[in-house]
Design goal:
The complex is a heterodimer of chains A (about 280) and B (about 625). Chain A has about 280 residues and is mostly beta strands. Chain A is about 10% helix and about 55% strand. Chain A starts with 9 loop residues before the first helix and ends with a strand. Chain B has about 625 residues and is an alpha+beta fold. Chain B folds into four domains: about 1-30; about 135-410, 7 Propeller (Methylamine Dehydrogenase, Chain H); about 415-515; about 530-625, Cytochrome c-like domain (Cytochrome Bc1 Complex, Chain D, domain 2, Orthogonal Bundle), CATH 1.10.760.10. Classes of the chains: A mainly beta (about 280), B alpha+beta (about 625). At the A-B interface, α1, β2, β3, β4 and β7 of A face α1, α2 and α3 of B.
């Protein structure tokens, strides 16, 4: 049983923003982090052995602030915090162990479509022997080089609706070596956005009435609970639905309350086991 | 509406350019370097400094003698060799480094133990031998290794190297059903033909190094019915590094390879096994006692670091891999057992077995494991990307063939240093290697009187971070690791009795620089347990942090740690790092504390820690052992 990832309809969000921005009307409810929504990356070898997984942290504005690397059995391996410059570009990353001691620092140089990568441990030893260069060869395709020689290639595979499906890691000749799958479960929570453009009116009315609608997709018959929390963890409201048939479903979680503008946390539990979170920003 | 249309058009233009969100945003969160970083740090992909060597470390033959299965540690895979064509016909990828392999009676399933220093949780991978598919993964103890199937095939045992126990696995159910505590660092095991006794080697002494009368490793004899240790058979004093064991076909004797460190005398020469001899213990399984212990060396030529042991299919010859000398001993087995039962202590005797043994030089480097197919012995070499097939016809020679596992890779300086660390050819008469006193670069848990001026017994130190935490010896006689006057080169000249050349020394320098700690088995899923978290607070509160500050947990200064020393008038000693304290017992410069809590609570070591409650002390110990 899993919640199927469905990327928010960007058009909807934009149209809501646009309409409200222009006419100065009441409320907008949207998923905050458009580029976000990446919950987890799972890395496999070519035989399908699960090697590692990585989870991602975001700040209240939806910016990626760090990630945690685990072995496939959930053994913690390291936490990486992300350092950005004033323009929001990542300049370096600091990876620490269970005791917050630095394991290594990754320096990242970005120039056009080229990324240079240098990973040095706490003794300033270059872990990879020499810096790595990663060049964008075409959309979503990169070549990984070291000392002037290409050593690997990787390709981001997207679905037609723009969801990242998988990253393939191959040798220079294209022989598959590793791959990564992406979980975008946070993207399944779509505050107030139910219909695709141009049918925006119902959404607009729902939002202006202060209702918060959360849409998601279940792939099998499921019991679903949606809870809404403040950022400090206070439960505001919840909605439950039993035996929801597979498909796209929407629950109204605001319980006819007029919600204040601000950021909230939505939590969706499926069959009391799988739990998904996302931040929702309500703007008036 | 016109304005709206314009805004919309502009917005979608941005989208199309990937400037607002979409692919470029996703690739900011999952940047192009993410996989390269994750896979290289995890030892999966090779980069310039870390070629993916194979490091073959275990081998098993299929029951029909048609196939060989070789575990390749650093390549994280199993190679299947077709014996007829002498070539690899399949490789099986694994989720972590393989540490051992066995196969069931009908040859349909492989059982491969996996674990590594990066991710030490042990698992057994049950693998379909035909398809190479991993059927399931069974959680066992930390750094599980040496899988052994009961003759019935329904129970599997693993030695949990870092958990100090043996896992008992119900094969049909695919789960661990019991743990049997054994002595420190169980490394190898073998089972009797009737399945009633599992013999387990403990590879490091579990005593105070000052227990000079009894200090030795043991062979544990496990009653498989009751799942308890029915006998602990101590080997001769100074025995350690028990890395190989087999049981004779009649089930009467367990034969275990090991070293004997003659630590009670100053290490002033090597000949005649003065410092280390390389031996074979013969354990009477039924009576739970040592029948004899046999020196494998010659008087003027050592055969450093005996490891894997097996016998030919006709049970006439015992074959032993010598990791340090890259040789294989061939010994007439019935004659050996006869002599061993008739002659008193052979542990330091060269003549009694002289006429019944020979050695052959292998072309693999660093042989560790071997298996027999009739009278052909297949040997893996940890530093070779091929294996040897040795046809044993007697004591008058053997033919040696080579079977490639993959293209050979040039050694980096680090890999060459690792090789040198395990190479007895850089030692006078090949008696020992750096590995002999520092197995896996960690201490052998023994006090040594080194070949330096006015030396007194000192506990062997871990080489982990020796490069980064000078001085490198307790009394700072060797202030740092590298360079002409550093401990690496002086160790070779003083302990291996040859003058190191730079082609030996420089790679060793590199190897030392790159040593990294193993994940502590005391961590809870890689994190500090609640107890250890409390211990961390106490560590800070009672002032441990001043002499053992993070991140290396040593201030690299000299302190009086309150450890009494009957041999040395000095009071101040180098402060050791606490990283990997969980595997570096005994503690103190004289190794006089086998439990870390005993040194922590010394009033003369730390006044604050000496006043802790039992719970606080326990928490503090948990934290230190988690490092």
């Amino acid at each position: 049983m899993k919640l199927q990832a469905t990327r928010p309809s960007l058009k909807d969000v934009v149209m809501i923003k646009k309409i409200f921005g222009i006419v100065g009307l009441a409320a907008i409810l949207c998923v905050q982090a458009f580029g976000g929504g990446i919950d987890r990356v799972d890395i496999f070898d070519n035989a399908g052995n699960h090697l590692l997984f990585i989870t991602f942290d975001y700040d209240s504005e939806g910016n990626n602030t760090g990630r945690t690397v685990y072995a496939s059995d959930s053994t913690f391996l390291r936490y990486t915090s992300i350092v950005k410059d004033g323009n929001g570009n990542v300049t370096s990353e600091n990876s620490v162990d269970y005791d917050d001691n630095t394991l290594f620092k990754t320096s990242i140089g970005l120039q056009n479509d080229k990324t240079s990568l240098s990973i040095k441990d706490k003794f300033d030893m270059e872990i990879l022997g020499a810096p790595i260069s990663i060049d964008k060869s075409s959309v979503g395709e990169y070549s990984v080089s070291q000392s002037g020689s290409m050593i690997y290639k990787q390709k981001y595979e997207y679905t037609n609706d723009g969801m990242l499906k998988r990253i393939n890691y191959t040798d220079p000749s294209g022989i598959p070596l590793y791959y990564a799958t992406i979980s975008q479960s946070t993207g399944t929570i779509q505050g107030g956005i139910q219909k695709v453009h141009p049918q925006l009116a119902p959404v607009f009315r729902a939002v202006s009435n202060g209702k918060l609608l959360v849409s998601f997709t279940v792939v099998t018959l499921s019991d679903v609970k949606v809870e809404l929390f403040t950022l400090s963890g206070g439960l505001i409201s919840k909605a439950t639905a039993s035996s929801l048939a597979a498909g796209r479903r929407t629950l109204e979680v605001s319980q006819n309350r007029q919600l204040r503008a601000g950021t909230y946390i939505a939590r969706i539990s499926v069959n009391n086991s799988q739990v998904y979170h996302d931040r929702l920003m309500l703007v008036r | 509406m016109k304005t709206t249309k314009l805004v919309e058009t502009f917005f979608w233009g941005l989208c199309a350019a990937g400037l607002v969100f979409g692919q470029s945003d996703i690739e900011k969160i999952i940047p192009p370097h993410l996989l390269t970083e994750a896979l290289s740090i995890n030892g999966d992909i090779e980069v310039k400094s870390k070629p993916k060597y194979l490091s073959p470390n275990d081998i098993v033959a299929s029951p029909d003698n048609m196939k060989l299965y070789v575990t390749e540690q650093t390549a994280k895979r199993v190679a299947r060799i077709d014996i007829a064509t002498k070539s690899v016909d399949k490789t099986i990828l694994l989720p972590n480094e393989p540490t051992g392999v066995t196969i069931n009676k009908d040859g349909t399933k492989l059982y491969v133990t996996i674990g590594s220093e990066r991710w030490s949780q042990g698992y057994v991978c049950e693998i379909d031998a035909s398809s190479g598919k991993i059927i399931r993964r069974i959680a066992v103890g930390n750094m599980a290794r040496s899988p052994v199937l009961a003759p019935s095939g329904d129970i599997l045992y693993t030695c949990n190297w870092f958990s100090n126990d043996v896992s008992v696995i119900d094969v049909a159910a695919g789960r661990e059903i019991a743990r049997i505590p054994v002595t420190r660092e169980p490394y190898a095991a073998a089972i009797t033909p009737d399945g009633k006794t599992l013999a387990v080697t403990n590879s490091l002494p579990d005593q105070k190094a000052t227990d000079t009368v009894t200090l030795a490793c043991k062979v544990a004899l496990v009653n498989t019915d009751t799942r308890t240790v029915r006998a602990q058979v101590p080997l001769p004093v100074g025995s350690h590094s028990l890395f190989g064991i087999c049981i004779t076909a009649d089930g009467k004797f367990a034969l275990a390879t090991h070293l004997i460190g003659r630590f009670n005398i100053p290490a002033t020469m090597l000949s005649n096994g003065w410092v280390h001899s390389n031996n074979l213990a013969i354990v009477d399984i039924e009576n739970g006692k040592l029948t004899n212990d046999v020196e494998l060396d010659l008087a003027n030529q050592g055969c450093a670091n005996p490891w894997g042991v097996t016998f030919t299919g006709d049970n006439k010859y015992l074959c032993i891999a010598h990791m340090g000398t890259s040789e294989m001993s061939i010994i007439q087995l019935p004659e050996l057992l006869d002599i061993a039962q008739k002659t008193p202590d052979l542990s330091h005797e060269f003549n009694a077995t002289y006429s019944i043994k020979t050695k052959v030089k292998l072309s693999v480097e660093g042989p560790r494991a071997l298996t027999a197919v009739n009278n052909k012995i297949y040997v893996t070499g940890y530093f070779s990307d091929f294996i040897n097939a040795v046809t044993v016809t007697g004591l008058n020679g053997a033919t040696i063939e080579k079977i490639d596992l993959g293209p050979e890779k040039t050694f980096t300086s680090e890999r060459q240093g690792e090789r040198n660390f395990s190479d007895a050819s850089i030692c006078f008469q090949k008696w020992q290697t750096c590995f002999s006193c520092h197995p896996f670069t960690r201490p052998d848990a023994i006090n040594w009187i080194l070949n330096t001026t006015n030396s007194t017994p000192k506990n062997a130190k871990s080489m982990l971070y020796a490069w980064w935490t000078p001085p490198t010896s307790w009394a700072a006689k060797r202030p740092h690791a590298g360079g002409p006057d550093g401990s690496i080169r002086s160790g070779i000249s003083a302990e291996l009795f040859v003058m190191p050349t730079e082609d030996v020394g420089v790679p060793l320098d590199t190897f030392f620089m790159w040593m990294r700690p193993a994940m502590s088995p005391h961590l809870d899923k890689g994190k500090l347990s609640e107890s250890a978290k409390r211990g961390k607070e106490i560590f800070s509160k009672v002032g441990c942090k001043y002499c053992h500050p993070a991140p290396l947990y040593t201030d690299m200064k000299f302190h009086n740690a309150g450890v009494e020393d009957p041999w040395d008038a000095n009071t101040d000693w180098d402060t050791p790092s606490l990283i990997e304290a969980w595997r570096t017992s005994p503690f103190g410069h004289t190794g006089s504390y086998d439990k870390i809590e005993d040194i922590i609570k010394l009033r003369t070591h730390s006044l604050g820690a000496s006043n802790l409650t039992t719970q606080e002390l326990d928490d503090l110990v948990k934290y230190v052992l988690s490092l």
